[in-house]
Design goal:
The chain is mostly beta strands and 190 residues long. Helix content is 2%, strand content 57%.
Length: 190
């Protein structure tokens, strides 16, 4: 039996996490047999900015908190982790995610309140940059009926602004990579 759930409590993101436009009043319905949603990176996740930060592994996990007909899919991200990175990265806040239906079981993913700090060394010393999402487009979800199995998230974010740091941080960075939804193994957006 399938439950119709509206929010996707991922992550960001990235990384999390963390991915900038509200859509109309149409409902986002996630067809899923579970309330916890977990995604694991397929290959590396990269934050492109003044310095490209690449992590070999990333996990996004959250809980669907708001769902149903005429309700935007929303949830809090409980885990936003990055490991095996070429620069130092710390998740400051996991934030929330929203999933908006597009068509055919697919959707767009946005993030708010996710914050990550990257640190890198320059001739001026160590630089710390905090990137924060605010209704930021993170990427697209391809639903299970289109993948023929597990849903995927393709990160192709809008610019994620720098919240604080030196001029060496630049003004924003963009997130790229892919996640495979491991829990539940069936997710569609209608």
């Amino acid at each position: 039996m399938k439950k119709y759930l509206a929010p996707l409590g991922l992550t960001a993101l990235i990384a999390g996490a963390l991915m900038a436009f509200p859509l109309g009043a149409s409902a986002t319905v996630i067809t899923s047999p579970a309330v916890t949603v977990k995604g694991e990176s397929e290959g590396s996740i990269t934050l492109h900015g003044i310095v490209d930060l690449t992590c070999s592994n990333s996990v996004l996990e959250g809980t669907l908190e708001q769902f149903g007909p005429s309700v935007t899919a929303k949830g809090a991200v409980s885990v936003l982790s990055f490991t095996e990175c070429n620069q130092h990265l710390t998740t400051v806040a996991s934030g929330t995610m929203e999933l908006h239906a597009t068509s055919g079981g697919n959707g767009t993913l946005t993030s708010s309140g996710a914050k990550v700090t990257i640190s890198f060394t320059t001739i001026f010393g160590t630089v710390h940059c905090v990137f924060a999402t605010n209704n930021t487009l993170i990427g697209t979800l391809t639903g299970s009926k289109n993948t023929g199995g597990t849903a995927t998230v393709d990160l192709n974010s809008a610019p994620i602004p720098v919240e604080s740091g030196s001029f060496l941080c630049g003004s924003s960075a963009e997130l790229t990579g892919n996640y495979k939804i491991s829990t539940p193994d069936y997710v569609d957006v209608d």
